[in-house]
Write a structure and sequence with these properties.
CATH architecture of the largest domain in chain B: 3-Layer(aba) Sandwich
CATH superfamily of chain A: P-loop containing nucleotide triphosphate hydrolases
Number of strands of chain A: 10
Order of helices and strands of chain A: EEEHHEEEHHHHEHEEEHH
Number of helices of chain A: 9
Strand order of the largest sheet of chain A: 6-7-8-3-9-10
CATH superfamily of the largest domain in chain B: P-loop containing nucleotide triphosphate hydrolases
Oligomer: heterodimer
CATH class of chain A: Alpha Beta
Order of helices and strands of chain B: EEEHEEHEHHHEHEHEEHH
Radius of gyration of chain B: 18 Å
Helix content of chain A: 25-40%
Distance between the termini of chain A: 26 Å
Strand content of chain B: 15-25%
Chain lengths: 265, 252
Amino acid sequence: MAPRITIDNLAYRYFAAGNPVFVGLSLEIPPGTCCAVLGPTGAGKTTLLEILSGIAGSQCKTSVAEGIIQIGENQYEPIPKATLFPGVGLLLQDPDVQISGIRDTVAAEVEFTLEQLSISATDRQRRVRDILADLGLSPLSQRHPLGVSGGERQRIALASVLVASPSLLLLDEPANALDSRSQHLLKGILRSRKETTTIILTDYSIDFALGLADMFVVLAAGRLVFQGTSTDFFKALVSMQDLLPIEYWKLLQSRLPKTRVRIPL
Amino acid sequence: MSIALQSAGFSYPGSAPALRDISLEVPSGDFLLVTGHNGAGKSSLLRLLNGMLKPNTGCILIDGRDTKTTPVSSLAPVVSVTFQHPGDQIFASTVFDEVRFGPRQLHRPDPDRDCREALVLLGLESFSSSHPYDLSPANRKLLTIASAVASGSPYLAFDEPTVNLSQPERVKLSSMLHRLGDAGRSFIIVSHDLEFFLPIAKRILLLHAGRISFLGDRRDIQRYENLARKAGVRLPHSFRLRPHVGLPLLPD
């Protein structure tokens, strides 16, 4: 079941004497929402995903956190201290970090995720076959996972996360290096999982999130600059021109009142 | 000074050809945007240009020299290439040393000055003494681009240079491209970020399954769009909507 995410007054820094990444960040994401977290470099987008996945709490021993995180029925105070996989799946920004490379084929690499979860071999192979087909990776199933193009590696990393069907899906810049066909495929997969999955994705631009996300959050230097629906976000777009690449959207928006064009929100 | 590919083809061992029968000339002062779906052969094309990969068929002439018989070190003064992942090329322990490496290896008259100018151009001067891995992913990306710029090569070839760049870094990259373009440097850019590059590029190349599907002027955008759609490449929403509000498909 898709969980509700509540972040209550989160403060976080990587070192006790370091600059804070977040100070008093509060956010509530309803179950089954696809939430786009946007903002420039250093906004805290990746750190937020690492905190929710449990990676920050389990691997960054020097970090200091305050506040409360709630994921569905589970409350963590201040943050999760162990990785929450497979309930929470995290796609990292760099596919070469995500892909283990210890298996010789794309299919075996994706199946490796499921081997950790005591799933029968028949079920594993079916799920791998399905996710590879969904992501257009079937023709590459017998290739080495690191011997393909950058965009294809991005899709393999995605398959490795999606195959476990996490109920909270965290995607760090998932559209990076994906061509428009792959972005379209990914949007379709994410839409089809919205009933059962809460999705949080980060991006530095708005194109991928448009038509997919129903909640937008904009962060800048760890502060919440905006949160709201896609319609509210589009109305407030001009105020975010220093934070997001919206030059061409701004121009379109200025001409919209004279036309009847539907924006793909 | 020019780059010419003559019926060039390339296959990775045991795989189907990544590139087939590519004939292409990139004159001095060009800004060529290379587009195509994932696996279309775009990154392989860049690796052929600096001699890291050698064509299996046909030939590639860099300033008249065949890449098959010319050492990579002799091609570097002409073409400087950056990879998609900064980690594939960064090796020095400070930003300054990383950027100075190219001009030093190429025996440029004043490598320190080349390095300082490139860092200023990409807005990285305050990170000179930082370790490259202490930079944000976006600034690491700009670091690899600064290294190519400092080398002084007249041809700069970047693989997905806007990946990981947010708005402030995109502004820096755009400013650098305009300044160096005005100064006569030539660019060959592999990218899916058509919103960023279509307004800047002079010519567009569309690769589909390793072959040239379109090569032409950016003003021929309508024909490009028709072929690109068949190849699974779409223009960004913000461009596709423009004709509906009375604007030309491509911004000036």
